[in-house]
Amino acid sequence: KSRFADVTLGPPIEVFALNKAFADDTFENKVSLGVGAYRTDKGQPWVLPVVREVEKILAADETLNKEYLPILGLDAFSSAATAMLLGKDSAALVENRAFGVQSLSGTGSLRVGAEFLARVLGSKYFYYSKPTWENHRLVFTNAGFEEGREYRYWSESTRGLDIEGFLEDLRKAPENSIIILHACAHNPTGCDPTQDQWKQIADVMQERKLFPFFDSAYQGFASGDLEKDSWAVRYFVSRGFELLCAQSFAKNFGLYNERVGNLTFVLNDTSYVPQVKSQVTLIVRGMYSNPPSHGARIVAYVLNNPKFYDQWKEHIRTMSSRIIEMRKALRDALERLSTPGDWSHITAQIGMFSYTGLNTAQSEHMIKKHHIYMLRSGRISMCGVTPSNVEYVAQAIHETITN
Ligand code: PMP
């Protein structure tokens, strides 16, 4: 008998399965609204011009070689990434009690951080929003946590944040629990706490001694403004929290497949830094030994050169404003068609995704009948909505709801 005979078939990963179905579909006007990746007005993937330019510079630089990076990655990258997150003048940076570790995009940074919390700090419980990015649970469970629990977040009836439920669930969480928080542009709901609500969240977390682990996958990409999109993280740091934050450069740099990420640690005293770094070093060493260099070099180059940095900031404004325009266009089109329902949530939500409110059967109908690929939860990626397909998408939603 084969050693593999009893392996059971695992569930497919919905977004990747959807991507494949989209690629296999021969319908001319098919639309991909599943995976969160930016598309040009013509529906094509976009390599940021500043990335292309820096790649040429790096390719021509014969002083660069292919030797291993240090275990914790390229310092020029992680320092710049941490400063981008916390702000150059952050007290935590000035006092040398914050540092970054280059890891494998957002996911790898979450994983290294989660494993550190579970193994080194002995954390047992992690809390995630209901709903959340579907990978949080798998990443944290595989990292060694005992149990993952939900906190209330989205209210179906108000199509907004259930702040009372959220705070109540935090109050019930055992001390030292890890609370995963989306830094901005909550995935999948597109609904973030207001500044006042963040203050209430921080109050409860401080009182209950809960530990924040921020997931920052969309800094700059959500509003076009790096400061605005890191407000919550900076606010928690200013309140004296120790915390972790996983940063992804997949969306804001369009470097999806280069796996560029940074895990920031903020401690309350610089004297703990060497010990913490040494334990993170052991975790990375035992997992993948050291990170790849290509993407990190690109980001480091851009963040450390004012001319390229400005060019990149222009790109994130292009991407975020196109998304905001498409939210308006989609809402307008639905209202023009008098599609039943209230569509104001489409423009109220921010970031890459919109929770349309379509149910599972309706979402499946969108795929089967209209070749518009979206998640069964009704989530669509606003990046896939373009001036050339927004009308088609609106008509399809209209037909789906009224048929
Ligand atoms: N967290 C959230 C909330 C995300 O939406 C994503 C990307 N979909 C990630 C983390 C990580 O993505 P990556 O590993 O590609 O950086």
Offer a concise description of the structure.
Belongs to the class-I pyridoxal-phosphate-dependent aminotransferase family. Pfam families: Aminotran_1_2. The protein is an alpha/beta fold and 403 residues long.
Span from first to last CA?
Answer: 52 Å
Low-confidence stretches: none
What small molecules are bound in this structure? Answer: 4'-deoxy-4'-aminopyridoxal-5'-phosphate
The total beta strand count reads: 13
Helical residues, percent: 40-55%
Given helix and strand content, the structural type is alpha/beta
Rg, Cα atoms, Å: 21 Å
Sheet bearing the most strands, described? Answer: 7 strands, mixed
SSE pattern: HEHHHEHEHEEEHEHEHEEHHHHEHEEH
Determine the number of helices (DSSP H or I, runs of at least 4 residues). Answer: 15
Instruction: Summarize model confidence as the mean pLDDT.
Output: 96
SS strand fraction:
5-15%
* Major sheet: arrangement of strands: 2-10-9-8-7-3-4
| Shape call | globular
Structural summary, described in words:
There is one protein chain. The protein has a 7-stranded mixed sheet, with helices on both faces. Strands 1-12 form a two-stranded parallel sheet. It has a two-stranded antiparallel ribbon with strand order 5-6. Strand 8, helix 9 and strand 9 (243-248) form a beta-alpha-beta unit. The N and C termini lie far apart (52 Å). The protein has 15 helices and 13 strands. Helix 8 packs across helix 9. It is globular, with a radius of gyration of 21 Å. The mean pLDDT is 96. The protein is of the alpha/beta class and 403 residues long. 4'-deoxy-4'-aminopyridoxal-5'-phosphate binds at residues 36, 105-107, 133, 182, 187, 215, 217, 248, 250, 261.
